[in-house]
Design goal:
This protein has eight helices and no strands.
Length: 132
């Protein structure tokens, strides 16, 4: 059984520097991407609850996890909560990396929509009406 190094009380009460050191060392020792992302999500929640000092905490680690590590279900689940850690160019790349099928489907849908756009349909109906 995998023992978790943090309790919820620790995640929401320890100081920023202590949490940074412990989470970073936990990841370096264990290599457990999923648990680390979940801990970072808890710190993200703590920041949103009003603890402003946690804004962009462990930015380098977050960028490493999302850009270098294997894409897992946990990374996909929490992906959009970490958008503010990346520039728009990096975010577009990561979006393609994390959701490659979605990007292909969106392009295909947009291509179909552009062929059957409303202006094209109305233009074709007007031409038929004029012929009658």
């Amino acid at each position: 059984m995998n023992e978790q190094p943090f309790t919820s009380k620790q995640l929401f009460s320890l100081k920023k520097n202590t949490l940074e050191k412990r989470i970073d060392s936990y990841y370096r020792i264990s290599g457990d991407t999923d648990s680390t992302v979940q801990y970072l999500m808890a710190l993200n929640i703590r920041e949103r609850l009003g603890d402003g000092e946690f804004h962009l905490i462990l930015k380098e680690l977050v960028q490493h996890l999302f850009s270098q590590r294997k894409v897992t279900k946990i990374i996909k689940k929490f992906f959009f909560y970490f958008k503010h850690y990346f520039t728009s160019k990096e975010w577009k790349y990561l979006n393609l990396r994390v959701f490659p099928v979605r990007q292909y489907a969106e392009k295909a849908i947009n291509a179909v929509r552009s062929r059957f756009s409303i202006s094209n349909l109305f233009g074709a109906q007007e031409a038929q009406v004029e012929c009658l």
